[in-house]
Design a protein that fits this description.
Oligomer: single chain
CATH topology of the largest domain: Nuclear Transport Factor 2, Chain: A
Order of helices and strands: HHHHEEEE
Radius of gyration: 26 Å
Strand order of the largest sheet: 1-2-3-4
Largest sheet: 4 strands, antiparallel
Shape: flat
């Protein structure tokens, strides 16, 4: 009876339950630079969707007349899978610009020496083109300026940028 997992779950309190990250997701165990996953991985499911969709359409064309289980749903599913797969193939941009290259492009666009900066990956447009969003502060302490720069993740072009005097009050954090 003591080995029954239902008994342990009933007698355990909330204080006894601990959530824990898997070993490969523990940040303190991470060593080295983070590699952002490439968007071109979308092409793999795209190929699978197109192949399965084409198989559904072919099966419907060959067996729809005399098969019991093959009906118009196969045609609908096949067309839908081909369309979704084609979208994945088109939207599977190759991410050629990493966050360091984007930071260099952003630093040259804003016109002031950069201190702290942060990079975030976003996607723009219907075809989900990868775009780096770089938030950066000037190198003074406290920073006098800040900026936001959008850098294309495919070719490294600076798409847009905005800079302003830093409106944040840093006086409470004086050295």
């Amino acid at each position: 009876m003591a080995d029954d997992p239902r008994l342990d779950a009933e007698t355990a309190s909330d204080a006894d339950v601990r959530d824990e990250l898997p070993d490969d997701l523990v940040p303190s165990a991470f060593v080295g630079p983070y590699i952002f996953p490439n968007n071109n991985r979308r092409r793999i499911p795209g190929v699978l969707y197109v192949a399965i969709g084409a198989a559904c359409i072919i099966l419907w064309a060959l067996r729809a007349e005399d098969a019991v289980l093959v009906n118009g749903g196969f045609l609908f599913a096949g067309i839908l899978l081909v369309v979704v797969g084609a979208y994945h193939l088109v939207a599977g941009w190759n991410l050629d610009v990493d966050e360091r290259d984007a930071l260099v492009a952003a630093s040259s666009a804003v016109g002031f020496p950069v201190g702290h900066a942060s990079a975030q990956m976003g996607w723009r447009g219907l075809l989900s083109r990868p775009t780096w969003r770089i938030l950066l502060y000037s190198a003074e302490s406290p920073p006098a300026q800040r900026g936001l720069v959008l850098v294309d993740g495919v070719d490294g072009r600076v798409l847009e940028y905005f800079t302003e005097d830093n409106p944040e009050d840093w006086s409470g954090l004086a050295d």
